[in-house]
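REVIEWER CHECKLIST
Item 1: Sequence provided? yes
Item 2: Single chain? yes
Item 3: Sequence as submitted:
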Amino acid sequence: MNNNKLNSIAGILRHRAMETPDHQAFVFINNRGEHTHRHTFASLDENARKIATIIRCMVKPNDRVLLLYPPGLSFIEAFFGCLYAGVIAVPAYPPRKNAHARRIQAIVDSAGASLALSTSTEKTKMERHAEHFSFLQGLKLIAPEDFWQQAEPMAIDQLQIEAADSLAFLQYTSGSTGDPKGVMVGQDNLLFNLDALQRHTQFEVGSTMVSWLPAFHDMGLIYGILLPVFVGNPCYLMAPVTFVANPLLWLLTIAKVGATHAVAPNFAFDHCYKKIDPDQLVDLDFSNLRYFANAAEPIREKSIKNFASIFPAQYDIESIVSPAYGLAEATLVVSCGIAGHSMKECWVGLEDLKEGRLTYMAAQSADSCQFVGCGPIIDDTDVRIVQPDTLELCTEEQVGEIWVKGPTVAKGYWQRAETTKEIFGAFTSDTSEGPFLRTGDLGFIKNGELFISGRLKDLIIIDGANYYPQDIEYATQQLHEALTDGRGAAFSIDSEEGEKLIIVQELNVRQFKAHDDEKSQLCDDIRHCIIEQFGIEADTILLVKKSSVPQTSSGKIRRRQCRQMFVDQEFPVLIESKAASRNFSIQQEPQAQQLPDFEQLLMQSIAEVLNLNLSEIDLDLSLIEHGMDSMTAMDLRSRLQKELQMKINFSNLLFNKPIRSISEHLFYEKQQAAARPTASAAPNDSDAIQEPDIDNLTEEQLDQLIARLENEVQAQS
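Item 4: Structure as written out by the authors:
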């Protein structure tokens, strides 16, 4: 089928439902590797048409509808239901924290949404905690499944599948929480980008996709979900938290279903390398695999090589990992590696790079910096490298801002005319060419390949020289395994003495059990590394607690937010090192004897279950943040019930709340139990343990427990 003859992705789904109704479209895989939900093109079409009927009973065409779905096939039904109904879908994610709720509120205000769709389970959760979710006021929240029996699939002649110039959806960018911008992605933008993706990746008829990327993110939605519909191929989906908890399952699924294509950001390749034993892959068949897309964050050659090394020798995985570059404002992809072509790399002199100049070097050296190419630019797309200050075109020997023009560029920002004009309507000052999209990314083009060097707004300029934060962050994180990969930020702050370099890096205390002098030495090592590699000194180095460095939904570090958190002294600091005095301030762990007996008992039990030192227990972090999962939580529950002679609700141990709060809650429950006449007696076998021991859990019970954990980990993600 020639997809160019169809005007919308909804029209393509409808065509699939008529021409290949029984072909498999989507399969959802749970955390145990079981295929729990399936859709053929016909069943997906029917459910989407039912949802379209429900939507049209509540809102008008072109209204905005918020999609608050957890990972699963229900999101896909609702997304196509919106397209069929002629309304504008706004993908988001069910809120779990107040900060996330504030972002949802900002999206609702920006989009002017009056209707939100979710699953019945998520709807109940949100309504139960409505006091935390102000966005529910004035917003009608429904679960389409609650109307399933009454709803009839929308008639074919009423489907909105012909409007090529209409908006497909609003993709809200990972900007500030209080000021998100909705990118208007048109049907024509979407089809153009999908066609380019198909050709570059050779996702031809007969291919198979496996994806765990979140559907509310542009890469997960367009590459992981819509591309398989565009071509008519099956796609196997799993939740992001399933991959994080068990990356082996991702590769097992790829081998089992004979997948040809997969996609992930760079951190996923590092995660697989660290967590998967090569022996676990020896007997697996990856002979069908021909394209691994690597995108959404800075790409490291070392990550790709390490990832490839865990596969059996007969599979040349390194040659099929293809870097790509794109952004929501360009629908998704701007440049993309071509299937069958190995990734390109180049080395550039550091001294000239500081001045924005390119001096290519033949090989790696102490005074060079490596860049990995993000593939050739997609067809019919004009990319220019421009001086961000003068707006003049750069020469081939200069780094500049990446400007994009062509059918892939979206329509602008929803209800933001001035910002749209500024970002989507740029013209070069020397040649008056335009309008171009200003990406805010820095890079260069070499031999037709696009290379990304950093973010314009994140660029560190000290004494007139340019430094790229991701390079400083990467160098820092290579010094010790306890310096968590991808969880640090380098930025500068203005002072009376000029710009100063600040490094904030998460420290995994479980991997760094050291005395204070060793902790101080770690900061010295970081400082010396930065001086040696980049010729500048860090003014302040903060080693902070796990999960405290903010990230976007796609895993990118929010450096501007980090800068503000540093200024406002909001980071939970473990170690602080300042250049001026070389003084080290080390946060002391609370002494056990200063804690109430009840709190001390809880800490001791946690330490034993997780094999931690007592000093490593942080009362202000949750059990999950200490590394607890559903299995160890069951062990802890069993211990505490014996020690305290009381029943303990399992959910109290996995909810994402600080240990201090858990202790207070259990202490209160113990007091309440003591006030009851029968509370002094030891619980008997009938009421002490309502759930079976760990070794005797049924699959259903284990799934329920892990599902609770997944909800909390997803919230942290």
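Item 5: Key structural point noted by reviewer: Confidence is low (pLDDT under 50) at residues 588-595, 676-717.
Item 6: Recommendation: ____
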